[in-house]
Amino acid sequence: MSFESLTSDFYGYENGLTDQEKETIVALRAFLEAEVRPIVNGLWERSEFVPRSIVKGLADLGLFGQPWKETQRFENSAVFRGWVALELARVDASVATLVGMQNGLVMGSIAVAGSQEQRDEWLPRFASGELLGAFGLTEPLSGSDSAQGLRTIAKRDGDNWVINGAKRWIGNGSISDVTIIWAKDADDGQVKGFIVPTSTPGYSATRIEGKQALRIVQNADIVLTDLVVPEANRLQNSNSFRETAAVLRLTRAEVAWAAVGNSVGAYEAAVKYAGERIQFGKEIGGHQLVQDLLARSLGNITASIGMVTRVSQMLDEGTQRDEHSSLAKAYTTSRMRETVAWCREIFGGNGIVLDYDVIRYFADAEAIYSYEGTREMNTLIVGRAITGKAAFI
Q: What are the residue boundaries of the Acyl-CoA dehydrogenase/oxidase C-terminal domain, all occurrences included (predicted)?
């Protein structure tokens, strides 16, 4: 199967990928169309997680562990990893979230804050799909203020740590094999990370019900009660929230890419529908107002691809800072909200049923807009860079 740039990539940014990267994108597209798209609406409607065979298929494509030398299949760029997030989200944002969480938040925590021994022990197991991970940072009373407001406490007790607290909105926390738990050290007040098998006594997870976005992702409330974790499972290089922030910095740009992918999915569905739906004696794609909505959507997508491409290039160059990924996340998710609304509008009443896909992109946009830093928090990070003044409180 030969490589063809997406028609929604109007300026052909994807053509800048290497031949190896393009081959992987082609294989990924084929897998998603054959294995994910046929079942995704049913899973979304029932709030069911993807079959573990899908996780294994993604692992076999080498999507887990792309940035880390212990598990990297071939030399690849941050731009390529962004395109992977886009390709996943254009089929389903929950699947993109799964890969981003496993590859970035979970494996990233171990790669950034773990020792070499921990990297060697754990990263290959996540990369192969043997283990499914979750990232436990957000709490019932601590979201945007996680840097200062964590209430989960870890107390050193000889060669062990005893952890008590609660986490909320933890993606796949009720089905994961291992969850990375971030907790405040009772003695020095610093945030530290822990590799916690979910079979550990004292770990209790309950799926959050009633969620109307990213329904395939199994978000959970987690309660940690006198949970004992050996010192060997403490991320050995996690000594403050700086390491947690470093992990988030790596993944925030890929969330921006996923926002673009969600926009692309809605746009492609709208273009297809505009070429099929007949009203007033002709395809609605031949009406001026529909073309205006499509052109505006394509403009948002094209501008967003340009932004995320550059921010990923900066990550490869080692020049990306928090404000760069924050601006990308805030901008692309805002444009995504506009785009999915315009695309849903093209469908009229048909736009609210899953048969036409667009309502799934429309609903999922609300979760992408909020997670990994709300628009407001990200604009404050950018505002601090602009003015030199912090305005968080």
A: 247-386
